[in-house]
User: Fold this.
Amino acid sequence: MLTPVSSVAGAAALERDASRRTHRLVDAARDRFAQRRRPTRARMRALMVGPGGRLAFHDVPTPPPPGPTGALVRPLAMATCDLDRPLALGRTPFPLPLALGHECVAEVMTVGAQVATVRPGDRVVVPFQISCGACGACRAGLTGNCTGVPPISMYGFGVGGGHWGGAFAEQLAIPFADAMLVPLPDGIDPVAAASVADTVCDGYRHVAPHLPALLKRDPAAEILIIAGTGRRPVFSASTPLYAGQVARALGARQVTLVDSRQAVRAHAERLGLHTLAPGELRGRPPAPLTVDLSGSRRGLWTALTHTAPDGTCSCAGILHRSVRIPTGLMFARNATLHLGRAHTRTLIPAVLELITDGHLRPQDVTTNVAPFDQSPTALREHILGDDTKTVITIP
Assistant:
């Protein structure tokens, strides 16, 4: 089932800069071989995941010294993404093994000669996508499609993401420090902010652009978030919970989260959200803003069929090459579907402002915190269990 998805993902990754991506992978392989034969750098622990969700520390060379625009950072708080569970179980297009992790807050260790905005000792949010800050896409705020690096360049996705390393490690290399790193405001716990690097921003971007106009028209408008719809959803549920938190923080009175898991519904209710099981949607009126974060065909269909006239459905994407959508119904209702990835670096400052002001509390979504030494066990439990968000810390 994943073979067609893999071919599509591979085509997207190679639609430009294929030779540069290949050269990067070859250079990384040569460096590993050279460091094995004649080590010149210190060693560190990096968490690797292999087929079947096997997790273990690997002893690997530390990254080389940063170039003039780069930096080396030491992760302080590293968080799971909702995609990490299917990724580790081999249910995504990204081949295993790989260095896991792409959400973190870190401490800057060293910087290149041209770096001006951060310095050693600073605590920073590290966006999961690689972006140069100088190309046309970055200047327009479209950092997820930076043309300074090959497509879908990101941490924690192995060869499929461009082999940039993983955040569950003792060091991480940042190629464009001024463009990428965002200082962590004073008073914010790195554990609370670890997922700002990806999933908190992802929840934000599905809701924040649409709410002002929507609530101006109808202050009581409902926001409907579709999370797990199957018997045992493979995706964790942190992004739906963050989306619900953001909606409430920005003034939405009625936020409904749909999930088949009783534990997720209970968690959402503790956050002040209304909840429904999927079957309870039947007969309910459509909502002007629906958010599909299910990762499934059924979830997208459910969101689209429950989008009101002139409403918007925002979808994070699914692990299928194609799906059926109700085009006739959407046409009749004049409904809009937006499907795509977040431009995370652009969103981080607004999300941090919400946290600083006390309107957004990502820590209330976290279900487990464990020290780095215990990360293979803690993350194995996350992958095979029901935890929503696991955060790993390094003192």
Remarks:
- DSSP finds 14 helices and 16 strands in the chain.
- The two ends are 42 Å apart (CA to CA).
- The CA atoms of residues 256 and 314 lie 15 Å apart.
- The longest strand covers residues 71-79.
